[in-house]
Amino acid sequence: MGLAHFFRLLAAYAPTSQNKAAYDEHVSKYAKRLGVEEINIDNGLFPKLFQTFAIQPCSIILSGSAGDGKTYLLRKLFEQISGNMDTWGNTYIPEAVYNEYSIKFIKDFTEIEKEDKQVVLEGLYHSILGNSKQLYIIAANDGILTDTLREAIHVENVQHFGELLTLIEKHIDETHTLDGNLILLDLSQTSSAKNFKLLLNAILDMADRYECNCPSLSNPAIFCPIHANIALLKKEHIQKQLLTIIRSCDLNYNHITLRKLFMLIANMILGYKGEQRVFLSCEEAIVHYAEQSNRVDASFYNNIFGDNLSRSKQEKSPFKELLELRIGYETTNNIDNFILYGDIQAPELHTQRLTNPFFDFNIFNTIKDKYLEEGDNTKIHEYLLFLRRHLFFNFDEKILWNGVTINVNELMTYKYAEEFYISVITPLKKKQSVSKHIIKELALGLNRIFLGELLSREGSDRLYIGSSLTSAMSKLSSEVIARIEFNQRHLNQGLHLNIVEGFDEEYCTVNLEIEFAGERIASLDLDLHMFEFLRRIADGILPTSFSAEYYERVLTFKSQLVNYMLQTQEPDNIFNLFMLNDTEGTLQFNEIQVEGVYVRES
Asked: Which of 441, 453, 457, 467 is nearest to 558 (CA)?
């Protein structure tokens, strides 16, 4: 069986105008026509979902974005329950029997007729809130589902749907719901990183099975960009970095659907800057680059960010989320100096670090000389972008060069992404405590924002709740109304990190919570961006790429704390004003007591 057939299937997922694999029902037919197997992965959701259903059969709502795999999961459930797929494809609403239950499968709630929607919702109501043995397993966008219920209540006057609407809306923002007679699973709150890893390895394995016909595998003189990308994507460290950036999207709640992951990997392997945007076969790719010298145009380093695509496609998922990580755009003088001048001062190290199958030193040196000698920057930025990305994907250790240390983690917006996953997410999943160092750094970041002062690290063993005396949202504070110490359990106060795990064990959210007098009084959503924001504030340097939105979120968090203190503490006539000792970065307090018309300073 020819390799070209497999790559034609893979190309069907690519971000081109003819996306043949855009919908689950088209994939099987197209794969059979090409004579290759479907590309499938087992992310563990189906067996876990069916096991949950088998223990207590009930209705299921599968929600999520288009391309999350709702229809695929529904098809797997039907196959498991009915044992026969003959009626699936041509039946409007397939039915099956499980024990004493009759089950109707709604492939896409959006697509069924309006009158059928109300019949389905009536049946769903009785299966959840009644004792009906007729169950429903529905793939639906939760917004359309709730809008249809509202319309039925207000327009059709079906008042008893209000109870069903309340139940669904109660759980709609949760990762999953197991509420007696209902399983509600939001597939957009599952791990893109786990799906990406499984899918990438499945595609690489299938490429291995079909790749024997490519002449580049037996003749190193022949360049095939498809197999050059495949060889790179098999490297352990490159896969680690790929998972880091996809996980960064997860940790910012930027979910990438399964369909978009197919699209991303297809473009990574097959993409190039040319008329077709993607290659359909090795033969086509080899012929193209036999006449072209600029191999970087087909590298996955650039394809993963959609550099081979039109601007309009780059501005859509999944490329939009990945471009926001600014990999290749973030840099330092040390990194760029190494790329431009490293061959003079450390030629062996320079060659070792920059060598890759898409890079031609002769072409680069010609472009570099024109830039350095004549100021011609026509192509140099393209190569700097490419080589920065090459360094990011291939090295995580520090590079020592010319007496300076190059930190490769500075090539990405989130230099603390790995720390957030390893030092916060991982221990919380294991029911372990986060290190005191992390807690203190977060507290320092909060203190500097709460007070509007560059507080030193010595003041990070407690949280200062500051007020301007005029507004809880003020950017500058003049009074400390409360101090919350942590790591002292007998005080029943502190700063805690709490994890909320989903139906998919890889998916989670983290909250930063403040405890005072034994009560959790305020919570801040700690996504990766917020973690990075607070860590950078603690470092004293915040890049301009960080928006004001997160600063405003922290001020809102501060206002929750200030309002709680003002509402729960007995009012007094003492004001704890402070000033910053600029030399030491510590607070100096001045207690002011108001007695009638007199002010006493202590």
From this structure: 467
Q: Distance between CA 271 and CA 13 in Å, rounded?
A: 12
Check if the beta carbon of residue 80 is closer than 8 Å to that of residue 202: no
Cβ neighbours of residue 231 under 8 Å, at least 6 residues apart? 357
Structure tokens belonging to residue 211:
């790749």
| Residues found in the chain | 602
Residue 579 main-chain phi, psi, to 5 deg: -135, 155
pLDDT in tens, 382-437: 999 999 999 999 987 778 887 888 888 889 999 999 999 999 999 999 999 999 99
Q: Which amino acid is at 17?
A: S
Give one DSSP letter per residue of 351-384, joined into a string: HHHH--TT--HHHHHHHHHHHHHH---TTHHHHH
The two beta strands, 462-467 and 479-485, are: antiparallel
Tokens standing for residue 214: 């490519």
**Burial grade of 359 (CB within 10 A; 0-12, 13-18, 19 or more):** middle
User: What secondary structure letter does DSSP report for 398?
Assistant: P
Between 152-156, 264-268, 429-433, 450-454, the lowest mean confidence (pLDDT) is in: 450-454
Which two structure tokens, joined as six digits, stand for 88? 């699936």
pLDDT tens-digit readout, 323-378: 999 999 999 999 999 999 999 889 999 999 999 999 999 999 999 999 999 888 88
583: exposed, middle or buried (Cβ count in 10 Å: 0-12, 13-18, 19+)? exposed
Is pLDDT at 1 greater than 50 in this prediction?
no
* Mean pLDDT taken over the chain: 88
| Nearest CA among 582, 542, 589, 590 for reference residue 454 | 582
Amino acid at 353: R
Per-residue confidence at 2, pLDDT binned at 50, 70, 90?
very low
Helix (H) or strand (E) holding 509: strand 508-516
Distance CA 214, CA 281 (A): 9
DSSP of 131-148, one letter per residue? --SEEEEEE--HHHHHHH
456 φ/ψ angles, rounded to the nearest 5 degrees: -75, 170
Contact call for residues 393 and 385 (beta carbons, < 8 A):
no
Neighbour count for residue 8 (Cβ, 10 Å): 18
pLDDT tens figures, 8-28:
999 999 997 565 555 656 777
Backbone CA torsion sign across 3, 7, 8, 10: positive
- Measured CA to CA, the distance from residue 93 to residue 89 in angstroms comes to 10
Q: How far apart are CA 418 and CA 505, in angstroms?
A: 19
Maximum Cα interatomic distance, the chain, rounded to a whole number of Å: 95
Tokens of 165: 């609407």
Sole residue written with tokens 């704890």:
576
Q: Where are the alpha helices (DSSP H) in 17-113?
A: 24-34, 45-55, 70-82
Calpha distance 28→238 (Å, rounded): 31
> How does DSSP assign 200-222, residue by residue?
HHHHHHHHHHHGGG-GGGT-TTS
**CA 196 – CA 375 distance, rounded (Å):** 42
Rounded Cα–Cα distance for residues 13 and 318 (Å): 13
Measured between alpha carbons, how far is 450 from 472 in angstroms, rounded to an integer? 10
